[in-house]
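ok, trying the design again with the full structure, not the truncated one.
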């Protein structure tokens, strides 16, 4: 039996968020899925998110919001595309068909519309719909969290912050999942460079819920962005037992921990975290967040001169099946790092050629629209760098560097591309590029003083004797 704390039909109605079903079991399962999504934690006693999605559809096969949350989560996970996965396309169609055959509330109808838009790649329009829901229903956590994830994928940092700020006054401490708003808001603050405020809000969240992995993640980012390496290492270690229970986020938090070691030049320590945690969790979950983290960590280590060839080969087993998904350009770029790292030309070509085809006729798909001017050039820069054509990589990346944000992800995640530009400029034979590398490093040093990684790169740039 589900815990009494999960909300039934009456409880949802009392909160002004009625659900169109007469099944209390379905309502409670919907709540159980929502709880696990927000807390980043598969609760095995409930059968995890997947078990609950199957159970909610069994409890009431026609419960539209049960389909919205189940199908929505698969779409937002970005590990599958309706273009390549017939089962997922069928699930979206079933949700739409069910919605047409029932008398739903306006809020539920908008949820269905948003899932439909997201499935077609119109991420920006889906976010608009979720935000419209929040105007009328600011305590609809599903709309808030889906919107948060959508803005994250779009690289819309200010919107991600403001989306939470707008609803905060309507939430009260007694409401279910209240403390988790702190992590969401904190993340928006840090991505808009309000680091001190972000840390304060995240720590308020941790005081309420010490095992809130997203608040931990927020603090990890703050230390990363301020190059407070020792503070970051101490923080991650002291809280590890609390946050590692968040199985959907633990890999990402370990990735942050490893980044501190890369920053310090402690490559063996970073590789140990990669082997013991990141790689193991990524292979087990196959989740996109875990996968891109594994790709990125290896690529950063490789730029630092560490040999990771064997690890790339293992990781290719996870990334290769997704080479033609093209759900997010951010994902594509990370998969490309691995196929290049393995010297797997056929996978590289398949990824690039299939993306070029989609870029020619993008339709309403936001990512495919971005592919021609941002996604494909960034992919090509990775290829040129891999082939030793460093000056070409600089020429490709330099004009679009202020557009990297549009591929989504966090500042910390996208930093791998800023590092790529710096490495390319340092390695280029062109003296102008080498001087440009110094400019980039001066700029990096000013916003993130005391970074050991920046200091190492500055030394390399100065050894060029310009």
């Amino acid at each position: 039996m589900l815990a009494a704390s999960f909300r039934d039909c009456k409880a949802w109605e009392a909160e002004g968020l009625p659900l169109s079903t007469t099944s209390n079991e379905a309502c409670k399962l919907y709540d159980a899925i929502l709880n696990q999504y927000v807390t980043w934690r598969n609760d095995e006693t409930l059968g995890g998110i997947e078990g609950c999605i199957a159970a909610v559809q069994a409890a009431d096969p026609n419960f539209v919001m049960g389909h919205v949350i189940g199908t929505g989560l698969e779409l937002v996970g970005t590990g599958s595309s309706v273009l390549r996965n017939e089962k997922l396309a069928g699930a979206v169609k079933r949700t739409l068909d069910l919605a047409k055959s029932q008398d739903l509330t306006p809020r539920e109808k908008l949820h269905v519309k948003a899932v439909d838009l997201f499935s077609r790649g119109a991420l920006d329009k889906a976010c608009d719909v979720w935000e419209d829901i929040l105007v009328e229903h600011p305590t609809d956590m599903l709309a808030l969290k889906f919107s948060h994830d959508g803005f994250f994928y779009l690289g819309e940092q200010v919107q991600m912050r403001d989306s939470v700020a707008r609803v905060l006054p309507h939430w009260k401490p007694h409401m279910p999942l209240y403390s988790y708003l702190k992590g969401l808001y904190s993340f928006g603050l840090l991505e808009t460079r309000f680091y001190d405020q972000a840390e304060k809000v995240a720590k308020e969240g941790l005081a309420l819920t010490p095992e809130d992995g997203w608040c931990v993640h927020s603090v990890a980012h703050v230390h990363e962005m301020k190059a407070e390496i020792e503070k970051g290492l101490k923080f991650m270690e002291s809280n590890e037992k609390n946050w590692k229970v968040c199985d959907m986020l633990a890999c990402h938090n370990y990735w942050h921990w490893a980044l501190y070691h890369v920053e310090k030049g402690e490559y063996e320590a970073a590789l140990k975290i990669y082997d013991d945690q990141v790689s193991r969790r990524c292979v087990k979950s196959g989740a996109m967040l875990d996968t891109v983290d594994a790709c990125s960590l290896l690529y950063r280590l490789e730029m630092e001169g560490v040999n990771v060839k064997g690890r790339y080969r293992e990781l290719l087993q996870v990334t290769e099946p997704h080479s033609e998904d093209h759900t997010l350009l951010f994902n594509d770029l990370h998969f490309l790092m691995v196929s290049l790292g393995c010297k797997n030309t056929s996978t590289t070509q398949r990824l690039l050629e299939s993306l070029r085809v989609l870029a020619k006729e993008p339709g309403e798909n936001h990512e495919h629209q971005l592919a021609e001017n941002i996604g494909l050039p960034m992919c090509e820069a990775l290829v040129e760098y891999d082939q030793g054509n460093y000056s070409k990589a600089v020429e490709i990346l330099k004009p679009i560097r202020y557009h990297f944000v549009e591929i989504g992800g966090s500042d910390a995640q996208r930093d791998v591309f800023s590092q790529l530009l710096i490495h390319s400029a340092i390695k280029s034979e062109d003296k102008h590029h080498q001087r440009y590398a110094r400019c980039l490093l001066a700029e990096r040093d000013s916003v993130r003083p005391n970074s050991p990684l920046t200091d190492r790169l500055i030394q390399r740039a100065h050894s060029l004797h310009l």
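Keeping the full-length input from now on. The chain has a mean pLDDT of 97.
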